[in-house]
Amino acid sequence: MVSQVPFKTLSELQRVGERTLPAGVREYVQGGSEEERTLRANRDAFGHYHLLPRVLVNVQEVRTDTELLGRKTPQPFFIAPTAYQTLVHPEGERAMARGAAANGVLHVVSTLSNFSLEDVSDAAPGGERWFQLYVHRDRHVTESLVRRAERAHYRALVLTVDVPVLGTRDRQEEADFHLDPSMPLGNLDPEVPPSRLGPLTQREHAEHRIDPSLTWEILGWLKERCGLPLLVKGILSPADARRALDEGASGVIVSNHGGRQLDGTPATLEALPGVARALGDEGEVYLDGGVRRGSDVLLALALGARGVGLGRPPLWALAAGGAEGVRRWAELLREEFGNALALTGCREVKDVGPGLLFQK
Questions:
Q1: Residue 119 domain-assigned?
Q2: Which of 157-166, 201-210, 225-234 bottoms out in mean pLDDT, i.e. has the lowest?
């Protein structure tokens, strides 16, 4: 069947997605913090490394499947959590879930989704999902969220720790990006700051919910209340990665929030090797930030990641073609990843390692 989505390649996807989005929403999706140095560094870092192909290997059959947190998956990439997805498509997270499930792609659902975690699960009953958690100032709300995620068959918790406060997002401010206070948040009760009755900035909409007083004790608190594996997202420091495991996490996601928090932090790909060395074989290491192509996925795996998350590309795909756009994006990315495996002489994911990296 010929795809009806308005993009044929991953190169074309961003252009099509950007054209589809309204101006203010486009700046929200594309933008980073302050001067956007980290936003650019995330993508530029992939140009600082090179892959070294090995030839004359029988790659007639190449397998892209692997395991993430002990569960089989057809490919080592997943959809990273992003909030407010009805801004880019009316079906929002439900369409994202259907598109992901169509290709067996793991979907990480945000606390700040417009549809409830149960609605998202029901939209694609066979899909594989993790739940991304912001710890609410009211711990009873947080406890309810993790118990709901467990009952709705989410397979892991992803605790985001790099947003004690929101970064300064100049591009959003300059575009006058605001949120309608009546926009539903499926997982949370409405909480409009009493000082604002009209359109809200993202800071006004979200920051008053998120607990800025978190310490490492939250990991033990969550482990006592939920039996799901726990990943800590927002790690750049090897010492923090090690501490996360010591406090009970199953692994970490090396992330700088897509360049949307502290500007001037290292690119995630550059931070990845140090984190991977710190954890060794004791915990799983994932990465997000700047990943676009199948060769990017391969490079991140060679540097120590078990899997990689993508945030903006599936949003572009959702904007361009709804669930079918997400399905087609995932299909193209898996094809590219398989092609990169073959061209480097790898028959399967376990063949990927530091030997694929070109050393100057």
A1: yes
A2: 201-210
- Residue 271, SS3 per DSSP: helix
CATH number at residue 122: 3.20.20.70
According to DSSP, the residues that pair with 51 across neighbouring strands are: 357
Residue 224 covered by a domain: yes
Q: What share of the chain is helix, strand, coil (3-state, %, to 5)?
A: 45, 15, 45
Please indicate, yes or no, if residue 176 is contained in any of the structural domains: yes
Domain that holds residue 314: 10-44+71-338
Is residue 257 part of the annotated active site? The answer reads yes
User: Token digits for 201?
Assistant: 């900035």
DSSP letter for each residue of 121-184: HHHSTT--EEEEEPPBSSHHHHHHHHHHHHHTT---EEEE-S-SS----HHHHHTT--B-TTS-
| Domain total in the chain | 1
Catalytic residue (choose from 89, 107, 136, 257): 257
Q: Look at the block and give the residue holding tokens 């676009």.
A: 292
Residue 83 zone, left/alpha/beta (φ > 0; ψ -120 to 50; rest) = beta
Percent of the chain predicted with pLDDT > 70: 97
Query: 269 near 286, Cβ under 8 Å?
Result: no
Q: With 60 as the cut, is the pLDDT of residue 325 above it? A: yes
pLDDT at 172 over 70: yes
Task: Tell me, rounded to whole angstroms, the distance of Cα 287 from its chain centroid.
Answer: 8
Structural domain includes residue 82: yes
